[in-house]
Amino acid sequence: MSVFPRISLKPDVTEYLKSVFLNKEVLAAVGQQEAECRFQKLLTCLSHPPSYTCVRASTHLAALEEIRRQLGEELKKMCSSSPEDLQILPHPRITDVLLLPVDGPRPVQQLSSEVVVGAQCGSAVLRGAHVFAPGILGSPKYMKTGDMVSVFSDLEGRCTRGATSFQGKKVFLGNGVAEMDRSTIFCTGEPPRGIGVRMVAPLYQSPSFDGVLPSLAFLQNLPSVVVGHVLGPRPGERILDMCAAPGGKTCHIAALMGDQGEVVALDRIRNKIDRIRQNAQMLRLQSIKAFCFNSTQAVSSDPAQQTEGPPFLPDSFDRVLLDAPCSGLGQRPNMATTWSLKEICSYQPLQRKLFHTAVQLLKKGGVLVYSTCTVTLAENEEQVAWALDTFPCLTLQPQEPHIGAEGMLGAGLSPEQLRLLQRFSPELSWDQTQTTTAFPGRADSDTIGFFIAKFLKN
Questions:
Q1: For 40-49, what is each residue's pLDDT tens digit?
Q2: Residue 244 marked as a ligand binder
Q3: Which residues of 416-432 are buried (b: 16+ CB within 10 A; e: fewer)?
């Protein structure tokens, strides 16, 4: 059921996306009406959370069934619903994934006391989080700890911090209990920390994973888990993760290798490297080496290069993951994006620079996986077409598992090439996921928007 308005975009961004989804190849294949319908469904489903919470289980540390049992016990301690309502389902094809159905939208009555949160905080609440104090923009004038409040997300970023009321565009997320007085949130010299509102009746009910089995259960979107399996790391290999922060995929690669070999993680922002190292330590992975470095400069032209870290000599890695910086237009739930069209279109040149580096650093016979969490052609299928044209040594490879849709028409790729690509397109099954589609089809199709291409270097 659609309870939120479609994602709010700047008008020229909407027109740009519409031209992508109603391109000539798509119109010739499915017709104007179907193409228009898919585009409208995309705008609607992006503002809603997926119908399953995906947990990647640390099967290098414990068996899936044991993690499932422990997770069930931990969540039952926290859960307001009855324990028998709590479902934790193993994915039938992906051996380290557990899925928890999301209950929603639920019939929740709005209250007169309103707390307003920012869009990022609102998205987290829709995926099971409580409201952390830094995300609160406005609250009732005399809000005290223990007060029942309704939580709303500011859709356009117009609520001023400290507001006592807000009449702008907002959407209802559910009800909670204030864990802090208003004065603690807004009137102290220190930035507020911790939970500001504990959600007790969210519109979409899914467990909060804050502090739950941190070394065994890792929250990760299903397509992001699929990427690691598609890369197919093997024990003893040397693997590069080029844009690695916050390290979820890096750690997954190391786990899939049985922590045998070397996983080099690069990111250009120092505190993000610290986060990768923390995640590796928490998941007890020794094979990860993280460096603060700009991946576009990661190829060394000096044959005498002897250092452990970047830059590296050409042909240094068995496999390379390029999970590229992108416009992020596949993220869900996302009710509003304030980015300009110029910002949305700014990623293609950077992605191509990174591609050049990736191909140079990959050994002959090695595997390169390119992925994004966006829905545009320019950052996905057009990049594949460009890469195949620019690097004759690259050929597309089949992906396993392949649970998403095939690539999208519009970049001039052949039907065979499109079948080798994997595009997670929640709009294609939005009607079914809102009604009766059974597990696991619903979990496989009602995901974030995501794209994966796998290449072999000949």
A1: 999 999 999 9
A2: yes
A3: ebbebbbbbbbbbbbee
